[in-house]
Amino acid sequence: MRGPRPKNSPQSWLSTNDIPKPLSVRGRTLFTLTVDASGLVQNCEIAASAGSHELDQILCRSLSARAKFYPAQDSGGSPAVGYYHSGIFWRPENRPSSLFVMEMAFALPHSPIPQSDPRSWISPEDVPASLRQGGTTKLTLSVSSGGEIKSCAIIVTSGSAAVDEIACQLISKRVNFLPARDAQGRAVDGVFPMKISWQR
């Protein structure tokens, strides 16, 4: 089965003229479109809001009216109902052309998506000098359907239980996720694996 693919440019689905000025929010809105077998948007659901109900309504209204798709295909290659999951970054700037950035689609289903660069989660200064050593910690984060970390499990130890514990504690405090999504675009529990390489 193949999901729906945009027939017209996603950048044309929303216009700066649609957005009330000044834009008062900054952040990310995720949406899921239900696309029927003819390629038209059947439903728009806000999966995660940036905090403005007004913008959520404007976005769904614009996407429903302007987004056109090549429909999904079932296992036999026939047109079928499908789901398109993507997002938009709101970024207030002085220039009207810079009010938002439409993201590429997230293929469904997908695992949890971190909202920050994993390389920034742990720094050398986080580990006391007395514990610094070489080695690698492999862990898995269990992420809820709301995007919160439920647990951190060590899969491969660095050789120091204390260092492994520091990693789990700091990541659990610092990191936020966009939740995993199933094939219908619904938020579900998921797992995010990662590896940390320690240096002396």
Protein described:
The strands form 6 sheets. The protein has a 4-stranded antiparallel sheet, covered by helices on one side. Strands 11-10-15 form a 3-stranded antiparallel sheet, covered by helices on one side. The chain has 200 residues and is mainly beta. It folds into 2 domains: 5-102, TolA/TonB C-terminal domain; 113-198, TolA/TonB C-terminal domain (2-Layer Sandwich). It contains 2 helices and 15 strands. It starts with a strand and ends with a strand. 14% of the residues lie in helices and 36% in strands.
SSE order and pairing:
Layout: E1 5-6, E2 27-35, E3 41-48, H1 53-66, E4 69-70, E5 72-73, E6 79-80, E7 82-90, E8 100-102, E9 113-114, E10 135-143, E11 149-156, H2 161-174, E12 177-178, E13 180-181, E14 187-188, E15 190-198
Antiparallel strand pairs: 1-4, 2-3, 2-7, 5-6, 7-8, 9-12, 10-11, 10-15, 13-14
Helix content: 10-25%
Number of separate structural domains: 2
CATH topology of the largest domain: TolA/TonB C-terminal domain
Gyration radius (Cα, Å) is 20 Å
- Unreliable stretches (pLDDT < 50, length at least 5) are none
Which secondary-structure class do the elements indicate?
mainly beta
Mean pLDDT: 88
What is the ordering of alpha helices and beta strands?
Answer: EEEHEEEEEEEEHEEEE
User: Per DSSP, what share of the residues sits in E-state strands of 2 or more residues?
Assistant: 35-45%
How many helices in DSSP terms? 2
CATH first level of the largest domain:
Alpha Beta
Strands ordered across the widest β-sheet: 3-2-7-8
Question: Alpha-carbon distance between the termini?
Answer: 48 Å
Number of strands: 15
CATH architecture verdict of the largest domain:
2-Layer Sandwich
The biggest beta sheet is recorded as: 4 strands, antiparallel
Give the overall silhouette: globular
